[in-house]
Amino acid sequence: MKVLFLGTGTSTGVPVIGCQCDVCLSTDPKNKRLRSSILVQSESTTVLVDSCPDLRQQALSHHLTSIDAVLYTHEHLDHTAGFDEMRAFCWHREDKLPLYAGTACLQQLRRMFGWAFAAENTYKGYIRPDAHDHGGRPFSIGDIEVTPVLVQHASVETYGYVFRNGGKSFGYVPDIKTLPEDSALLLQGLDALAMDALTTREHRTHLTVADCVQLMGKLAPSRGFLTHCGHAVDYSLTCSETPDYITPAYDGMLLSL
Ligand SMILES: [Zn+2]
Ligand SMILES: [Zn+2]
Ligand SMILES: [Zn+2]
C-alpha cells in the first residue's frame, strides 16, 4: 500500500495570503502546504481522500488522471470545495464514480453539489457519484479495507480512516480536536498514522503539535506524521522537537507500507 500526501496544509494553505511570518516567507519547499488530501493506493485500487480546493494543482503535479473512488472525512470546504475538479476523472468513464462519506457529510454534499447527485444528471463525462453512506461501518474499496473512525472536530460529524492492505495499516485523521475512547481502540498500534497538528497554541477545533505528539504516544503507531499544519508549524524546527518516530508530513511525500 502506498500513501501520497497531495496536501498537508490547513484550510488557508501555507503561505497564508498576505502573511509575512517566517514560515510563510520560508524558502523550504516543505513549508509550502496545499490543502489536506491524500491518495491511498494498492496494486489495483486508487482512492482519493477528500476533494480539496487545490485538487487541480495536485492532480497536475502528480500526473493523477484517474481514481477508483473518492472518500470524504467531513464537509468543511477545505475538504470538499474541489468537487468539480473530479470531472477530470470522469471524462473517460462510463460508470458512476464511487463516493463514500458519513451520513451527515453525504447530506451536505448532496446539498452543495445537488446537480451532480440529481437523477437528471445523465451527462456523460460529468461527475455522476455512486454515493455510499458508510454510516461509520467498515467497508472495502477494491482490495483496500477501510475502517471509519469517528472523531470530535468543530460541530460537524467528522471521520478519520484506517486503511488496510497487504497486511499493513495506515490511519489518517486530518481534522480532530478530541478522540473518543471507542475510536482510540481503532487507531491503536498502526504501522503509520497521520494526524492533525494545526498549530502550536491551544486551538478550539484542532490538535496542536504537542497534543498530537502526546496522543500518538498513547496510540503508538510505528511511524507518526503530522498533517493539516498551519503557518505556526516550521518543518525543520518541528522535526527537531518531535520524537524520532514522528515527523511532519509534507506535500508530495510518498509513504510505502
Ligand atoms: Zn504566516
Ligand atoms: Zn475541518
Ligand atoms: Zn480541514
Low-confidence runs of at least 5 consecutive residues: none
The portion of residues forming beta strands comes to 25-35%
Q: What would you call the shape?
A: globular
CATH topology: Metallo-beta-lactamase, Chain A
Bound molecules: zinc ion
Structural class: alpha/beta
Q: Compute the number of structural domains.
A: 1
Any idea of the CATH class? Alpha Beta
Radius of gyration, rounded? 17 Å
Number of helices: 8
Name given to the CATH architecture: 4-Layer Sandwich
Strand order of the largest sheet: 6-5-4-3-2-1-14
- Tell how many strands the DSSP assignment holds: 14
Estimate the helix proportion, in percent: 10-25%
Mean pLDDT: 97
For the record, what is the CATH homologous superfamily label?
Ribonuclease Z/Hydroxyacylglutathione hydrolase-like
Largest beta sheet, briefly?
A: 7 strands, mixed
Order of helices and strands: EHEEHEHEHHEEEEEHEHEHEE
End-to-end separation in angstroms reads 5 Å
